[in-house]
Specification:
- With 210 residues, the protein is α+β, with helices and mostly antiparallel strands.
- The protein has a domain of 132 residues: 2-Layer Sandwich (Alpha-Beta Plaits).
- It is 32% helix and 45% strand.
- It has four helices and nine strands, in the order ββαββαβαβββαβ.
- Strands 3-4-2-5-8 form a five-stranded antiparallel sheet. Strands 1, 6, 7 and 9 form a four-stranded antiparallel sheet that branches.
- Strand 3 and strand 4 form a beta hairpin.
- The longest helix has 26 residues.
């Protein structure tokens, strides 16, 4: 049985409609327990704020760690690292429907108390987009098979096999905002227009040659 194997590619881009905000609460204290308590108090306060601002969204913890905090000290003309306490860090993630108002409200709640944050723009329903991409990939494969078979004097017949590997899928658009820019973003209501979300799916299809 003669066959022809083609790879169909489905590509698309669409506006971002969902924003994922990640930020870290960090507190330093000589007492390890107090450092943890201060972070916990801030986390509880932010949870209440975001619950009122975005009732359908949830503030979740991405990571939590405690480590010794060091600072450089001058001892007899020599610079030495000296332990000054404990640093507690808790990184949070919040997903909200994308809009300038939502971003300003979410970042405005942080004020000047957190070190930095990052934004990731994506789509709320990636599976719906992936389905369209796969349909486009199969259509692309059928068109390629028809052209190639015809160029060789044949005709693409029934599908003998379909191979689908690792999905490339939806690629979020990341953006990092540094320490001093967090409060400035909220106060100035800086406009951030995310790049379009680009996605791709590939499928390999084997056709019988008639």
């Amino acid at each position: 049985m003669k066959t022809i194997t083609v790879t169909g590619v489905g590509r698309a881009s669409c506006p971002a409609d969902f924003a994922e905000i990640c930020f870290t609460v960090r507190r330093v204290n000589e007492d390890c327990g107090k450092a943890v308590s201060e972070v916990n108090e801030r986390a509880q306060a932010l949870t209440e704020i975001y619950r009122s601002l975005f009732p359908k969204s949830k503030l979740v913890t991405a990571s939590f760690d405690v480590s010794v905090e060091y600072a450089e000290a001058d001892e007899g003309g020599l610079r030495r690292r000296k332990a000054v306490g404990f640093a507690c860090r808790q990184t949070f993630r919040l997903g909200v429907a994308y809009s300038q108002d939502n971003l300003a409200a979410a970042i405005g709640a942080l004020g000047e108390t957190e070190a930095e944050l990052s934004l990731r723009f994506t789509v709320r329903d990636p599976e719906r987009l992936r389905k369209k991409l796969l349909e486009a990939a199969c259509k692309d494969a059928a068109e390629k098979a028809k052209i190639l078979a015809g160029a060789c004097g044949g005709k693409a017949g029934e599908i003998a096999e379909i191979r689908y590997g690792t999905s490339v899928g939806v690629q979020p658009s990341p953006l990092r905002i540094g320490e001093r820019a967090v409060a400035a973003f909220a106060s100035a209501r800086a406009e951030i227009v995310p790049d379009e979300i680009r996605a791709e799916e590939c499928v390999e299809i084997v056709y019988r040659l008639d």
